[in-house]
């Protein structure tokens, strides 16, 4: 059976199996009864958080002093939900919220470079992970909010070995 014949056969089966126009609903006049149906939707407090990487500009030669960079955090929380944003110490051993460290990634390089994360461009308010102490506080509006994280790495007079120095800091939204 070729394709046109199959299509024709299919159309005939549809007609035989009862394809027809719907019959209008009947109208009744004996009375009626009603019931109330409750419809509800519960919205629970909630938040999501996302980050962008912080990459300091490459340093060459014998630079000393602070090197600055920024990153962004984005948070969406349900309207009127209070929250705190915290940043932990990072993944390098011996890092603390007040003295974070970047570690070299090459085998054998044990050098670390100190850096800080701050809530303000003047580097006056450290950003930590202790609620009620050094987290950033806000309230949800139901739309995305963006926050800037200000970073500052400190280079000493002794320049470390060439390498990529890094740490992974976890951002947490508490609600």
UniProtKB/TrEMBL annotation:
InterPro entries: Spore_coat_component, Spore_coat_U/FanG. Residues 1-25 form the signal peptide. It holds the Pfam family SCPU. The keyword Metal-binding does not apply. Keywords: Signal. It comes from the Bacteria. Residues 33-172 form the Spore coat protein U/FanG domain. The keyword Signal applies. This is Spore coat protein U/FanG domain-containing protein.
